[in-house]
Amino acid sequence: MSLGPYASFVVTSYTLVAAIVLVLIVWIAVDYRHQKARLRELESSGVTRRSGRQATDI
Amino acid sequence: MTLIDLANPTKFLALTARVLPWLTGATAILLLVGFYQAAMAPDDYQQGATVKIMFVHVPNAWLSMFVWGVMSIAALGTLVWRHPLADVAAKAAAPIGAAFTFLALVTGSLWGRPMWGTYWEWDARLTSVLILFLMYLGLMALWRAVEDPSRAARAAAVLTLVGAINLPIIKFSVDWWNTLHQPASVMRMGGPSLDRAFLIPLLVMAIGFSLLFVTLHLAAMRNEILRRRVRSLQMMQASQAA
To answer: So where does this one cross the membrane (chain B) (predicted)?
Structure first.
C-alpha cells in the first residue's frame, strides 16, 4: 500500500487519532480504579452508605 | 428493567457492568474492520491517498456535534425533568466530545494542507467547529469551578442549551456561506454522493466511533456516579466527626 507524496499527513492523522483515543481509554480506566480505591478507603475507615450496602457495591 | 429504573444510579451501575464488556468487544471489532477497509480503500482520482484521512476525520466531526446533541438532551433532563442521571451524563460526555472535536479539527487541518494548500482558513465551517471546541473546554472549566454538583449542573445545562444554537450553524455553514470546506457529501438531499468504495468504509468507521463514544460515555458515567458516592460518604464522615 503506497500512500504517495502526502504519506506523512495520512500517517500523522491516524497516529494522532489512535493516541488521543488511547489517552481517553487510559484516563477513564485510571479514574475508575482511583474512585474504587477511595471508596475502599472510606469503607475501611467505618463510613457506610445510608442503604447499608458496601461503598464499593455496584 | 424499564427506562425509569435507570434513574436509580445503583441499577444503572449494574446495567453498565453487564453491557460494557459486550460494547467494548463490538467497538473493537468494528474499528478493526473499519481500519482494514480504510487501508484497502482505493486512492481518489483527485486527492490520491489523502482521501484516507476522511475515514477518521468525518466520524470525529460527526461525533463532535452528536455529543453536544446528547449533552443538550441531558441538559433538558436536568432543567425540565430533573432526572438524577442527566447531569452525570452531560458531565461525563464533555471531555469525550472535546477529544472528538479536537481530532476533527486537527485531522481536517492535516487533510487541508495538501488539498487546499493551507492548514487553516477562517471560513464558516472551520471557525464554527473551533467555537464548538472552545465551548466544550468552557463547560469542562465550569464543572470544575463550581463545587456543588447540582449548582454546576444547572449552570452547565443552560450553557449547553445556548451552545446548541451552534449545531445547525456548523451543519449548514457550507450552504449558507461560501466556504473553502466542501459541502455535505453523505447526509444530503438526494443521497450520498460518495462512491461505495469510500462510503462503506466510512459508514463502518462512523458506527465504530459511535460505539466507541457509547462505551466511553457509559464508563465515564460510572466513574462520575462513584465520584459522587465518594463525595457523599466524605460529607457523612465529616458530619460524624463534627
So the answer is: 12-36, 61-81, 93-112, 124-143, 155-177, 197-219
Residue of A13, A31, A47 with shortest CB distance to B56: A13
Q: Per DSSP, what are the bridge partners of residue B48?
A: B44
User: B116: Cβ–Cβ under 8 A, 6 or more apart, which residues?
Assistant: B180
Query: In Å, how far is B169's CA from the nearest CA of chain A?
Result: 25
Mean pLDDT, contiguous 10-residue spans, chain B (242 residues) = 69 92 97 94 87 96 97 95 90 97 97 92 94 97 89 93 95 86 75 85 96 98 94 85 75
Cell numbers representing residue A10 in the block: 495520512
- Predicted TM-score of the model (pTM): 0.92
Q: Does A11 touch chain B (CB under 8 A)?
A: no
Interchain proximity A9–B10, CB inside 8 Å: no
Does residue B2 belong to any structural domain of this protein? no
**Cell numbers 477511595 correspond to what residue?**
A38
Report yes or no: A14 at the B interface, CB cutoff 8 Å.
yes
Shortest Cα distance, chain A CAs vs residue B225, angstroms: 9
Q: What ipTM is given for this predicted complex?
A: 0.89
Residue B206: burial class (beta carbons within 10 Å; 0-12, 13-18, 19+):
buried
Has residue A56 been placed in a domain?
A: no
- Give the separation between CA B99 and CA A39, rounded to whole angstroms: 28
Task: Tell me how many domains chain A contains.
Answer: 1
